[in-house]
Design goal:
385 residues; alpha+beta; FAD/NAD(P)-binding domain; D-Amino Acid Oxidase, Chain A, domain 2; 2 domains; seven-stranded mixed β-sheet; 11 helices; globular
Length: 385
């Protein structure tokens, strides 16, 4: 049964919503988490947790149990078939986590949900938010016909955010969208099992990411994606975009799906007591593996700001949250779009691109800047500076 009131209502129990709630619960505040799904999904899109995100998760006690279940990748490569154009050295990062952690989003969610349950907070499912109205001291929410009063509401409910719509916050960006296919497979491959790779192909990028238990996550931009890609379809993608001299051979498709992505950002991340985080505030291409990572960083920053306000701090701290995180989201959107453009350059321009990437890879300061950018640590430097 739902409570009649709460300090903070969090709508959406993905990584962003769970991390927001955990940040608040650790500070001793009452938080209610809703999700419209009856069960948490066992499959998911995101497969990489970057160094800065691990530092952020470490603040709320979630990094160590997550690291224990993932694959540590000390480098990331950009390839054109068999040629390594750029090798990014994560092992030299100035961080306690000098690697990219390759782990399914489903595991990330399970770790956060378990930490939250240890604090006495259970996700309430299935629950659907149907209305929001301002009150003198916060918000009155309608949830499946019942009323709940909250000091603040956090929309962590994704691309089609009900919270964003009910708050009247615009969500702008190009009208075009990208189609992607995703599959977790078992594959015979000579590619390293401790290294994620981005293959740049004229038909679109292909992300190759090894996961625990010998599984490989593949994500590719395609013109039209099947609802459930089979082994033949995935093999054709690898034959077209992956290694050529010693091609990968798919032996099993564990699961597959498709999704479409817009490049959009909310006009603001705050409307009074209503705040946005994660995909509710920004969506973009998965190139570079930045989406879930940015959402988790939003979550801990927002949870901390809300806790400080509930602890007696000024509400301007919430304006500081949107002033800091929205430019960060704009930067990530631009970065992801740039990676996609690199992959889809015309054949005439690809040789120049390849030479430039190789030149960048030969310059240590350039490699370091790229590693800081991909790992998210450039955001840490910016916020501390």
């Amino acid at each position: 049964m739902l409570p009649t009131s709460t300090d903070v209502l969090v709508v959406g129990a993905g990584p962003t919503g769970l991390a927001t709630a955990l940040t608040l619960a650790r500070r001793g505040f009452e938080v209610t988490v809703l999700d419209q799904l009856a069960e948490p999904p066992s499959t998911s899109r995101a497969a990489v947790v970057h160094a800065y995100t691990l530092e952020v998760l470490d603040r709320i006690g979630a990094a160590a149990p997550l690291v224990a279940q993932g694959v540590r990748a000390p480098r990331f490569t950009v390839r054109d078939r068999d040629r390594v154009l750029l090798s990014v050295p994560f092992h030299q990062l100035p961080s306690r986590f000098p690697y990219a952690l390759l782990v399914s989003q489903a595991i990330t969610e399970a770790v956060l949900a378990r930490q939250l349950a240890d604090r006495g907070v259970q996700v309430r499912r299935p629950c659907r938010l149907t209305g929001l109205s301002r009150t003198g001291d916060g918000v009155r929410a309608r949830i499946d016909g019942a009323a709940l009063r909250a000091g603040f509401v956090v929309g962590a409910d994704g691309l089609h955010s009900t919270v964003r719509r009910l708050a009247g916050i615009g969500f702008t960006g190009p009208s075009d969208e990208e189609s992607f296919v995703l599959a977790d497979v078992r594959v015979h491959s000579t590619l390293p099992r401790d290294e994620a790779a981005l293959f740049l192909a004229r038909s679109g990028p292909l992300i190759w990411a090894p996961l625990p238990d010998g599984v490989v996550r593949l994500v590719a931009a395609v013109a039209t994606a099947p609802a459930e890609p089979d082994a033949a379809y995935v093999q054709a993608l690898l034959d077209e975009r992956g290694p050529a001299r010693r091609p990968d051979r798919v032996t099993e498709v564990l699961w597959g799906s498709r999704f479409r992505v817009h490049h959009r950002i909310a006009d603001t991340f705050r409307s009074g007591p209503v705040l946005l985080a994660g995909d509710a505030g920004h969506v973009h291409s998965p190139a570079g593996g930045q989406g879930m990572n940015l959402g988790i960083c939003d979550a801990v920053a927002l949870g901390t700001a809300l806790a400080d306000v509930l602890d007696g701090g000024p509400e301007t701290l919430l304006d500081d949250y949107t002033a800091r995180q929205r430019p960060m989201a704009e930067d990530v959107l631009s970065f992801a779009a740039g990676l996609t453009r690199l992959a889809t350059l015309s054949p005439a321009r690809r040789p120049v691109r390849d030479v430039l990437l190789r030149l960048l890879g030969a310059v240590p300061p350039a490699r370091r800047r790229i590693a800081l950018r991909l790992s998210g640590l450039s955001h840490r430097e910016r916020t501390q500076g």
